[in-house]
Design brief:
By secondary structure, the chain is α/β, with parallel strands linked by helices. Helix content is about 25%, strand content about 35%.
Length: about 180
């Protein structure tokens, strides 16, 4: 078995096999905290060196180039694109609740997961400018990317930990991929 740690030390990920970055909150405040606590370069290096990375909700959005939440804020710029607010007079924002996700590209982290319902709570979504990153999409007034990834990186706008068996299977697959490497 492997040790699991919650860390506030950016250097701790240098020898980690995997990082899970969950998150709820505002993009700009999260990026400011990552910057002031010294996480930006260690996270970028970890991802660029193909460490296993799972981003959830805000941890998904922070991977993009920028967000318009509370003004334009630069993101980690791992995935080209901009995070924008849902613009709908007909639908309630935030988008909260269960929504079907269409898996559009196969991915080892999504093995044995059919198109299924997942639990969302968000007011912003990414406009992805490099479609090679898009793995899954959902629809809420507009089609939007909700699963992205390449290599050892997977990120979801929805909360897999709140998404019953299908969501838990994503986490199980992620752990299995990490364990298969060791």
């Amino acid at each position: 078995t492997k040790d699991v740690h919650i860390s506030n030390d950016p250097q701790s990920i240098e020898n980690s096999e995997a990082v899970i970055m969950p998150g709820d909150g505002a993009f700009s405040m999260a990026m400011e905290n990552l910057h002031t606590q010294g996480w930006i370069e260690p996270l970028k290096n970890f991802i660029h060196n193909k460490g296993y990375f799972l981003g959830i909700c805000l941890g998904f959005q922070l991977l993009f180039s920028e967000s318009e939440e509370f003004g334009i804020t630069k993101g980690l710029d791992i995935i080209p694109g901009k995070v924008v607010r849902f613009e709908s007079s007909e639908l309630k924002v935030p988008h909260m609740g269960w929504n079907i996700v269409d898996i559009i590209h196969n991915n080892a982290f999504l093995e044995n997961i059919p198109n299924n319902y997942f639990y969302f709570i968000h007011s912003y979504y990414p406009i992805v400018t490099d479609n090679s990153w898009i793995i899954g999409q959902a629809e809420y007034g507009t089609h939007f990317s909700c699963i992205v990834g390449k290599d050892n990186l997977l990120a979801t706008q929805f909360h897999p930990e709140k998404s019953h068996n299908a969501g838990l299977k994503i986490i199980e697959n992620f752990i299995s991929q990490v364990k298969g490497r060791s």
